[in-house]
Amino acid sequence: CRAQHEPGYCVFYEECGRNPLLENTLIPPIVPCLNYTHAQPCMLLLQVCPMFDQGENNTYACCTIRQLRSLEASLSLSQAVLVRCPACAYNFAHLHCINTCSPNQSQTVKVTKVMNVTELNVTREAVVGYQAFISNTFADASFNSCKNVRIPATIGGYAISTMCGRYGAKLCTPQRWYDFQGDSSNGLAPLDIDFRLIEEGDATGVPEGVIPYNGHALMCNETTPTGGQVCSCQDCQESCPSVPPPPPVAPPFTLLSIDGYLVISIILLFLLILSFLLYLFVSYWVTSRNRKDEEKGKRRGKGKDKNSNNVTQQVINPSEVTCAETNSLAAQDFLSSLFQIWGTIMATYPLTVSTLTVAIFSAGLKNIELTTDPVELWSAPNSRARQEKDFHDTYFDPFYRTNQLILTAPGRKGQIYDSLLFGPQNFSGIMSKDLIIELLELQNRIQVDKVKDVCFAPLNPNNPSLTDCAVNSLPQYFQNNHKNKEIQSAYFHGLRLPWHKTHSLFLFFHFFSSSPLSFKDITDLGMSCMADYGAPVFPFLAVGGYEDDAFISAEALILTYSLNNYARSDPRFKVAMQWEKEFLKIVQDYQKDPSTNFTFAYMAERSLEDEINRTTAEDIPIFMISYAVIFIYIAVALGEYSSWKRILVDSKFLVGLGGILVVACSVLASMGFYSWIGIPSSLVILQVVPFLVLAVGADNIFIFVLEYQRDVRRPGETRQQQIGRVLGCVAPSMLLCSLSESVCFFLGALSTMPAVKSFALYAALAVLMDFVLQMTAFVALLSLDARRQDNNRCELLCCVKVSTQRPKKPNEGFLMPFMKKYYAPVLLHRYTRIIVMLVFIFMLCGSLFLMMNVKVGLDQELAMPQDSYMLTYFQYLYKYFEVGVPVYFVTKKGFNFNSVEGMNAVCSSVGCDQFSLTQKIQYATDYPELSYVAIPANSWVDDFIDWLNPESKCCRLYTSGSSIGQFCPANQTVKQVLFIQIEMMTVNKKFFGFFYSFVSPASRFMAYHTPLTNSQEFTAALQKARELAYNITLSMRKVPGTSITNVFYEQYLTIVNEGLFNISICLLPTFVVCCLLLGLDVRSGLLNLLTIIMIVVDTVGVMTLWGIDYNAVALINLVTAVGISVEFVSHMTRSFALSTKPTRVTRAAEATAKMGSAVFAGVAMTNLPGILVLALAKAQLIQIFFFRLNLVITLLGMAHGLIFLPVLLSYFGKYIIFSHFFSL
């Protein structure tokens, strides 16, 4: 009778009791009684198995009411993760209804194992194992409808990964899916079911009379007969609308298949060269004509210069003098006379006002505040990223503090393991028992008791214990428990698979990594895969260095401790910092231990700040040496040495020291003033501003002192009058440069970057104060030193006098005669000038091309010294991590979750908008190489909808007792089924009571970026996240996309435009001030401006060649370059404009010899020694942005100021100021 397989017959019927073979199951393992009988009428089949309902009085089944209730309870557990897709849940129920209740059960089921089961003193024969014959067509269709159903809370994980055992979602097949469902060890199946999937038309192995079931399985994009909607796009690819791929990355700019910028640069090069050659031809023709007139003696005369040398000069009629020339001379006379009077007063009565001003301003230093927080330095308070961060931190806690180790074992040899289940597997050497145990021991050593006070404990934040702290690591797969590990070891040993064998470890890791959400594995151990703090540990957080989810081939283990983030004023912040300090000490001691089997990298949240502070402290001596070298040079170079006997008299040690003190006082006054008004300083200001002011101040000092040394005191003139007269000659030039630079920096403070803004403010006031102090204190100091020198007294030993008298002729030193006799004639030779122009035109065009290819960004490892452990960590991070930083999409306060439209605009389950927030993020993950989004966002809205679903039979609210109405654990037997449909949410008061327990005034949805390795990728990821957020915002209220790194990388979205604006605004005063102080001399102003622009452009070009990225630090240096360029250029331009030589070439030669020598000695030779010393600094930022970049700026400034500018002026400079030759 048992062998019969006929339609309308059952092979088992009614419940016999518990399966005696099973214990510790998730649901009672009730098994049916063996009973070959006719199918019986069943009126309640419609509720559980509607596919077999044939209407009233015509519905038969092979199950009783009790069996239906047990089947319903069993299905509810699985349907809790499948309910997002009604078709999948329907097919899943369909499968088990076939076996349990089908009226033709005997045609699809063959009993294979029975046992006697006694219940209520009645012993009956029960079925504990059977074969189920299913058509491949039905099996494949059912599997396909479920394979893409997701569990939102698992960061994009698939529901089927919890239902396919060791295989997980990736390796799951219909056969493996059914095998897991029929495996009684999974805690859900009450008996063993051997699913046989049979191809249509293939009767091999099919018992006589058995017909493999081949009913209709719904596709996931079909509605269910019970009214269920089609599955959402996230759970069913067939439901997805046609979404065009995002536009590809814009190709490089090309012309004629060649780099477009290169083509433009070449065209510009040829145009400039042709224009210059044309100018040479025209000027040669005009000069030839003029020479003929000059040979006739027209308009020629003799005169004498100030040294009584015969010169040829033009005799000018007053009618030929222009208004601009009159204004120019008037401006020079006015400024010269004004400064002459001032200098005489200062030399006669050394003023104390300057000292008083410095003292008052410097007193503000007691309130100085150094900004070290990178967010405060580089992100403007009103910037979008900063506002988004502040909003996020206000409504959610700041992103937790990360402390991490990345461990490798490069000496361990891996092996290929040929698994019977999975085929050949590349098993890495780090997956060994002894290394995992060693990692666990290290983890326990680090996890000291005090960490619970500050640790991130997501499931018990109010009163956490050590096991509540979020620690992600591989040992979490056995809950960091040696006992669990030993149980596993014993288990595998019982299978004759000891731990040191590859097969056993392979099974262990594959079980857990395939299904990290499982509360019970499929082995006899029945162990949970969850971490001890109650959450899953996803494999990408525990291991790294693998490909295509092949976790067993991972090359690194990852250990991460997460701490809560607190404001610096919170006492718990110090506790967290102290724990991190101890964490670093333990890890560093462990690294030094010779018995350590790991090679690893590590970091704490405080590491970046610690390392920056350490290298700053270590590099302070380098800066001190740099300033000392500069001081020694100034003290030696200012001396006028005429005889060895007078060397102590003619030295200028005290004058050099005074000049350094003037610079120091100007910087202190600037810092003190801004401290008074509450504008914080930074390390960048302390490092850059003194160098800038020193370059400006030293140049002015050299110009003033050298002019005094080259001057001869006139008969009857006092020392004070001579100093006043000399100051009247050079102070307008000093004012021109200082005022240009100061206004330049004040305008630079319009920048939105806090670091650039504060630097510009500090630099502007420091330059201004430096000029004021030079006009007061330094003039007085030079007067005192001149009196000492006139009295032949030794420096430092003022009581000692020498008998050798000072020479009567002026001391021109070495540099001026050299430039006058050799350098200027060679430079201004007719052929040399042409070569110089062509070379600098080529440099300009080449730099323009290179400027278009400069990399924008600042990689965080550059902030670290070269010996920092953080550099190793960054290398490991980029090499082994398989996901990037989190990115949050936040709905702002006021988004209407209370409506169906509001919920549908956010969720991703059945019935939701196909272009909802979470769905659009899911679409972005289909193109990670373009969107930089790797893992989709999990959605609490979907979890909430699932929680409300009436299909779930888990406990949600207490319905009686003292806790009535409160939440209850899902494993409680007390239940209340919430029949709340999503369409009724807006009118159901009970819904709102539950809803506000889930949501805060703002809501966030977290996704993950792809691994990002440099600032260019971080910036691109930020831009793409904003584009995605904007796309989401088009269909709902504003949703910003924010990440923990956005505040650092947002600046690179606008830094090019920001830089162009800042440099342009700085260039403007260099032109305006030059024109005004030279009496509206537009031509000199334009030539001055052109040269400075060329210096800046060439600097950016060399940055590209030398691998210096363009960023905020580079921008500060480029703004500084404008200031230093003014020193190299403006003095020369003014000297040329005021020269009385008859031709442009001779005037350029005079300016080069006279002012060029002072500029070379004062700017170039002052900067270079100090800059070269910075090459010894440990900090890479200092080496790159202070040594390299400042060296480039100084060399290019020197080349343009002392080579290009004299040649440019000799061709295009203004004609001689006619009004010099007669009295109006």
TrEMBL record:
Catalysed reactions, semicolon-separated: cholesterol(in) = cholesterol(out)
Superkingdom, taxonomy of origin: Eukaryota
Any GO CC annotation of this UniProt entry: plasma membrane
Membrane topology: Multi-pass membrane protein
Start and end residues of each SSD domain: 619-784
Keywords: Disulfide bond, Glycoprotein, Lipid metabolism, Membrane, Signal, Transmembrane, Transmembrane helix, Transport
InterPro entries attached to this UniProt entry: HMGCR/SNAP/NPC1-like_SSD, NPC1_MLD, NPC1_N, SSD
GO molecular function per UniProt: cholesterol binding
Protein name: NPC1 like intracellular cholesterol transporter 1
SUPFAM superfamilies, per database record: Multidrug efflux transporter AcrB transmembrane domain (SSF82866)
Annotated localization: Endomembrane system
Transmembrane segments: 261-286, 341-365, 620-641, 653-677, 683-706, 726-753, 759-784, 831-852, 1059-1080, 1087-1108, 1158-1177, 1189-1212
Family (UniProt): Belongs to the patched family.
A single GO BP: intestinal cholesterol absorption
Any Pfam family hit: Sterol-sensing
